[in-house]
Structure formats: C-alpha cells, structure tokens
Amino acid sequence: MIKTLLESESEAQLMTLEEFLDWVPDGSGRYELHRGVVKEMQPTGTHEQIAGEIAAELTLEIRRLQFPYLIPRQCIIKPLDSDNSGYSPDVTVINKNYLDQEPMWKKRSTITQGETLPLVVEVVSTNWQDDYLLKLSEYEKLGIQEYWIIDYLGLGGRRYIGNPKQPTISVYQMIDGEYMVNLFRENDRIQSVIFPELNLTPTQIFKGGEL
Questions:
Q1: How many helices (H) and strands (E) would you count in the chain?
Q2: DSSP strands (E only) in the chain
Q3: What is the DSSP letter of 86?
Q4: How far is CA 162 from the centre of its chain?
Q5: Cis amide bond preceding 164, omega within 30
Q6: Measured between alpha carbons, how far is 200 from 52 in angstroms, rounded to an integer?
Q7: What digits encode the pLDDT tens for the residues 150-207?
C-alpha cells in the first residue's frame, strides 16, 4: 500500500525534487515524490520477498557474466523534464560505466539519464496504476532499456495482463524509441535483452515469495 503523507495538492505545498531529497529521512522508510506529493511506500512481506528474490537472481547473473552493473540498495530516478517527481524502484540495475555522467549520483543517489539504467523492476502492490500508467510512461520517455512489472497477484487492468487476470510478469523492451511488451506466466522462461542467458520463470520468482 501507499500512504500519502501530504494529503492533497490543494491542502499542502508541493515539494520540488530538491526539497524532497533534502527532506527524505535516511534509513527510516522508503519514499517517492509523485508530482510534488510525498508518498511513503508500505510494502507487504511477500512484496519484499519477491523483490529480494529478483535482486538476488540478477546479482548472480551480473557476477557470473561480469557485467558492469550494480544493484543499489536504494536510489531515486528523476523523470525527464520534471523537477517535482522522483521514483524509487523495487529493483534498479545501474550501468557503472555511465555513473560519471550522472550529476546527482554521488551526493543524492539519484539517476537522471535513461542510458544509465539497463533495467528497472517494479513489484505491483494495490497501487497498480502507478506501475502500469505513471511509471511506464515516464520510464519510456526517459529511455530505460527494459522495464519489468511483477504482478504476482494479478492486480493490473485486463488491457495490460489479459482476461482472465492472473499473476503475470510484463517485460517492456525499448524498440525504436517505444516500449513493446511480452507477457510471461507460470513456467514461461522470462526473455530479457539485458540478461539474455537468464533462466528464470514467474513460478520460480513467485515461490521466492512463498506464494
């Protein structure tokens, strides 16, 4: 679930990203800034287990193939042409070769350029619209190469995960400047351009969350 800390745009002064980064408590929760409104992320235990399972599998692959990637404990993604939003994905894969070109990384742990981000993963909670609508659009505009939506409860709209709704992993890949999507369920092997040798299925990921 997400708890809105600033009750409404009409009742509270909206924050800029700089103000948010100055305000956000260090090590006392996870927060995002959505168009000036601060939101505290309150994930379930299952949500965190699944995110941890994905991060562990990708870390093994990074080390095995010696990719120049890292998965930070936490970072903020600044959307393109926005000074009042900042997102904190469940799993963020960063290309270390581009960090020298990131003006906000060393002091703010913030990424501003899509080429620095080979892959971003969001695990769906009850606020599924944020992942399928808001973040999908912003990550596409930023040029993030690959975006996974892990919908382990099948909460997303039918236009995104089909009918009947069921647990689905949606893999969006950048092709000619826009996202194209492939859906994976049950024992499908997830097809990733960023991790082409990855041998992982939705069932394996969901079992990591003890579903």
A1: 7, 11
A2: 2-4, 30-34, 37-41, 69-70, 76-77, 91-95, 110-111, 119-123, 146-151, 168-175, 178-184
A3: B
A4: 21
A5: yes
A6: 14
A7: 999 999 999 999 999 999 999 999 999 999 999 999 999 999 999 999 999 999 999 8
